[in-house]
């Protein structure tokens, strides 16, 4: 059971739209970097290997290979330092935590592709919902469209 005060604070800070992504998805995380008095955006691209927590405490880990070395970063989902999260490719996995990718190298780190609902890149859930809207199914497809197999002799 969540405390009422904690719930009120989390509701205030979790109002930002976040795309729907899960472990196995390839994402581009646009991070604000402060250098002296200047601020710039740096993109960290990789595969989501973990997502944990709830509410404003949600974090996710993104892993990528840089010159043959694995680099992982933990990002708080609702951090003000994250300007945008873009899902570039959906991944089909059967695990919630993909820590086994740490021992793998090269092509063994590939994850099977899952078709995204809208068939493309998502930046916010609202865009995904709008892009996924399709015409209602026709009445023609209600029955079985399979042809009957001939009886065996």
Could you characterize the architecture of this molecule?
There is one protein chain. The chain is mainly beta and 153 residues long. The chain contains two helices and six strands; from the N terminus they run αββββββα. Strands 4-3-2-1-5-6 form a six-stranded antiparallel β-sheet, with no helix packed on it. The longest helix is centred in the N-terminal third of the chain and has 10 residues, at 4-13. It starts with a helix and ends in a 21-residue tail after the last helix.
Task: Looking at this protein, list some descriptive labels.
mainly beta, 6-stranded antiparallel beta sheet, 153 residues
Q: Please summarize the sheet with the most strands.
A: 6 strands, antiparallel
Strand line-up in the sheet with most strands: 4-3-2-1-5-6
Distance between the termini: 65 Å
Strand content: 35-45%
- Name the poorly predicted regions: 125-138
Radius of gyration: 21 Å
> Would you count the extended β strands for me?
6
Structural class, by secondary structure, is mainly beta
Shape: globular
User: What is the string of SSEs from the N terminus onward?
Assistant: HEEEEEEH
Number of H/I helices: 2
Average pLDDT over all residues: 81
Helix content: 10-25%
